[in-house]
Amino acid sequence: MNKLKAIFCIIIPISLAFLFNTKIGSAPPVLKFLNPFMGFWQNAENNHFMFNHKVKIKGALDQVEIVFDDKMIPHIFAQNDHDLYLAQGYVTAMHRLWQMDFQTRFAAGRISEVVVSEPARESDRYQRRMGMVYGAENSLEGMMADPKSKEMILAYTEGINAYIKTLSHANYPLEYKILDFKPENWTPLKCALLLKQMSAILAMGSDEFYMTNILKKFGPEITKNLFPDYPFKEDPIIPVGTKWNFTPLPIPKTPESFTASQTGDVRTKEKVEGIGSNNWALSGSKTASGYPILANDPHLELSLPSIWYQIQLHAPGINTYGVSLPGAPGIIIGFNQRIAWGVTNVAADVLDFYQIKFKDSSHNEYWYNNKWNKTTKRLEVIKIRGSKDLIDTVYYTHQGPVVYLQKANFVKANSVPVGDALRWIAHDRSNELMTFYYLNRGKNYNDYRKALTYYTAPAQNFVFASVDNDIAITPNGKFPLKWKNQGKFILDGTDPAYDWHGWIPASQNPTVKNPPRGFVSSANQSSTDQTYPYYLNWEFSPYERGKRINDRLTTMNKATLDSIRLMQTDNYSILAQNLIPAVIPLLNPENLNATQKEALSYLTKWNKRYDANEIAASIFEIWTKRLAFDIWDDEFTVKGVPMRYPSRDRTVEMILKEPAAKWYDNVNTSQKETLSDLVNESFKYSCDSLERRFGPINKDWSWSNVKQSNVPHLAKIPGFGSKVLQIGGAKSTINALSETNGPSWRMVIELGKNPKGHGVYPGGQSGNPGSKFYDNMLDTWASGQLYDLFYMQTPDDQSGKVISRLKISK
Amino acid sequence: MVFIVIVIICFLLQMIAPWWIIIVVAFATCGIIGKTGKIAFWHSFFAICLLWIGYSLFKSLPNDNLLASRVAVMTGVKLWWALLLVTGILSGLVAGISGYCGYQFRMAMLAKKTDDKIA
């Protein structure tokens, strides 16, 4: 009896220890997490006192001094390049370690090692099967081949690892404690993975599966009519009429055959507007100061910790300020004493699918060039927390990985045709770091042009301005040499005529320097007019943002910081300007109820701005979305045949110019619908759905309340994201802010004897939700203001406020 | 006495040891100097409850409870001080139960010895 009691007295405490030390489901180990000595309470940073620190790092060659300003932005002063990137790695890890770790795990398909769930496993398989690790390995080879980028990446890695070495469990970043795992050492491959992930975000879009299905269902004529090769309305990046001063390479011949592919079981999605961005530069002739002004705001899926990390890098031969990506050395968007540069995405078609004919179900051989060729195999070992490894075999043809052999149950896999090989630019050996190495140190236009030749992917519109009063823009990347529309549909993998035929020479990428109009700009629209000799893609982002930017810059003179800043938050909708005069007359007021009549009066009085308090913007947004659905859904949603709708541009063209198009008729009803019927139905639908949500028209109908903009946490942890922000903007306006997608960094640089930088992002420097620097810039960003950036000349520069210092020595 | 001993030893050990050291300390302390079951439980409970609440406040107050408020939303208790109470009560309970078990363990061993002697 007493023995039993003694045993119980030991078992109970031990099981308590076990119970509260174990991660159960998604909940962290309870007492391990609540323990104030090592758990989450330790991540509460002191808001009121900042201290100076010193740290010894064996690999450092010399003294490094790091100054933190009042927004916790580090300004690094090093004696050589090696120490500069070592210090960049160290401070970035200090603020963003978990973010860097998690993003590269995600990129590498290693989320299952820390999170156990079905979506995590499918995401890992997808990342592996798309060849992310394969691409990163090739890319790393490219980076290691150049001594400069090799030094950058090794020093940066060394800095991160030096920081990781200082950590004990008590000061692990918070998310490690929640998800219950440990930081692991950084590797150069992770830098490559991070850059590949940017390619995946910006250049992984693919419509060819949908387009092939459309071609099969509707035939070539209708497909060409509804999915034209150039938009109805356009205002291209390189101004119309710019001459091409080069002799183009011969364009490969279009093969005579065409193939289609098998289909899967997915529903049609309305085409979501891709990731976009704006940038522009004005020459001194249009500014008050007589020197150029450059602006950039890249739009991404917003998250906390912030996507970007501000930093100043100062060493002999370099003094540059801007934003970096946590996980990659150097500055991506920024300025130095003499030049400024920025980027927006180019929607070039650098991803193609090839239909593969395998000999048999072993997939060991495939038919190409009239003979059987061997596939290669790559084994992907996915480690899964708390269970057996999952081994996934991926077959590679000479084109690339055969992504899926069976339909995967995963959202991102919907656009991937089964049994097809992927040819993707991001799989190629490349060295993008050198572009930024040279831009960061650039002095003039020639340095800019030289830097761009190193760049492969994801293709970007590089805007440029210099103190010499040069401005330029270049849609830049490594573009495959293709016949027209190669890759609009799935390609035949058996015929060499369908392969990529070399590259457009970097010097022949579209570019313009100092155009007569006095400014350059881009907003992801078509790169050029139709005279450019090469094929880049048949479809780019809709033209509305670019048009509005060009309209405003054309009329702008004596521009100042404020005129440019206000332009970045411009909510005027060109789409509304084009559509409202065409659709409002089609409404039949007699058939509207009281609320709908009131809504109509709001619309007729609307200034066409998506401002926060606009009720008409909410009505218009839902109305036009529904109208597109009414027009296309009956034809383009067929069970088992995934397709997409025609573009917004084509829809607008049809509404304006083809009042009798057959597409207005709903094929699922017996009567014949007209455009007017659909306009009335969708208008009522919009009013009714808003009324159901918010009651009769009141301030809850305002655009910001309908839109619910917010910045969520990277891993969507509740409580770690932002509150709902009551702000305007919409996808088709310059201020392209939707629910969670928008300007991830707004920057305006005034060049001059001393450059003046201004910028803000939705978040802060620190990745720690327990720091006041986690989201301290959010309200400034939301209100459309910018901070003055503190461009220091020496560590003791008094022009800004310094809150702490960190000295690194060997 | 039990209270003071646990507070001091746990405070020192927790600087380096994992959280479950409180179980070991409460068990051992009450196993050695615990006078009654009641004392073993309640002294252990309050020792750890107050130590953890105190140390949490030491970290959280200079932070203006910013982090605690976020974690409170994450865990669903909503208010930062509720999270503080959960921290104190849960850790206190585990320590209390361990202390009580430590005391009962000694009683069982003593009784066994007496049994052995009588036999």
UniProtKB/TrEMBL annotation, chain B:
Keywords: Membrane, Transmembrane, Transmembrane helix
Residue intervals passing through the bilayer: 6-27, 39-58, 78-103
Keyword set includes Transmembrane: yes
Protein name in UniProt: Uncharacterized protein
Species annotation: Pedobacter psychrotolerans
